[in-house]
Specification:
Helix content is 7%, strand content 42%. It has three helices and 18 strands.
């Protein structure tokens, strides 16, 4: 069996955190004075920040940070990003410097604080860490750490005195396996060998967060499942009922390729199609 990693996604996410006057500096200035350390506040994230093992070349995302300090970020001379890779508590690849952006490349035209926009590309990260997709499994993690330098030193940790701060100096990208479906009309053909329907067996299809349940009636039922252009989430889950050995089904994509062909057909009570989520799987 393939190892199944179920995850909740809502197609490619785009987060946009607006910055009002109150949001721009979410730290009491007296708290900031305690440490004097600068910090980076994420104000925009675009793209799916998890890394798709089945399509690393398409796993790219962008984050934009504003750089805040006692000197309104003007004393920050360097912005760095480090990354390593782990599997549970084990290290797959040691930490490496992913990028280094000097103050001369900060954007000072977009607000009261300097900003940096960082492009993260999975293929570049893998190359840096000396990893390939064969080294990875679903559930592995890439761990990112930001570091800011000013005359007081280099800072990665945000002071605990910042009771209201929303800085994000560390974040994680999970390794997932996302099968992007072919858009168009898919055909689900469900068969019951005895002719009395599936006796509680059912298939749940989730398209971008919208779930629909299907089941065979009589000797069988055929339905069309339409996948819109741009869909990235398409999960297909079979739930067993009674007399599972009577239940068969095939799922065919718009190009006529049979994606799933499941069922034993021995007429038994329990020996039926495999249960659980059958798409978006990571290989063993």
């Amino acid at each position: 069996m393939k190892q199944i990693f179920k995850f909740l996604l809502a197609s490619v996410l785009i987060f946009n955190i607006g910055c009002s006057d109150d949001d721009t500096l979410p730290v009491d200035i007296e708290d900031l004075n305690v440490s004097g350390g600068p910090f980076a506040q994420q104000i925009l994230s675009e793209g799916l920040s998890d890394i798709n093992l089945l399509d690393p070349s398409g796993s790219n995302f962008t984050k934009t940070y504003q750089l805040i300090s006692l000197d309104n970020g003007n004393d920050i001379s360097l912005f760095e990003v480090f990354v390593n890779a782990t599997r549970l508590s084990d290290e797959l690849a040691g930490e490496q410097l992913l990028l280094s952006i000097p103050a001369s490349e900060f954007d000072t035209s977009s607000g009261p604080f300097p900003q940096v926009m960082v492009d993260f590309a999975a293929e570049d990260i893998l190359n840096l860490l000396g990893l390939t997709t064969t080294d990875l499994e679903g559930g592995d993690q890439f761990n990112f750490r930001l570091a800011l330098t000013n005359p007081e030193g280099t800072f990665s940790d945000v002071s605990a005195n910042f009771a209201n701060q929303s800085a994000q100096h560390t974040f994680i990208s999970n390794v997932i396996c996302l099968n992007v479906p072919v858009p168009g009309d898919w055909t689900l053909e469900m068969t019951d060998l005895y002719g009395d329907g599936w006796n509680g067996g059912q298939i749940t299809v989730n398209i971008s967060g919208e779930s629909t349940t299907y089941s065979a009636a009589g000797f069988g039922t055929t339905v069309t499942i339409t996948i819109p252009e741009g869909t990235t989430i398409f999960t297909f889950t079979y739930t067993s009922g009674d007399w599972e050995g009577e239940n068969l089904y095939t799922l065919t994509d718009p190009n006529g390729m049979v994606v799933l062909n499941e069922g034993v057909g021995d007429g038994s009570q329990t020996n039926g199609p495999p249960t659980g989520e059958l798409l978006n799987n990571c290989p063993e």
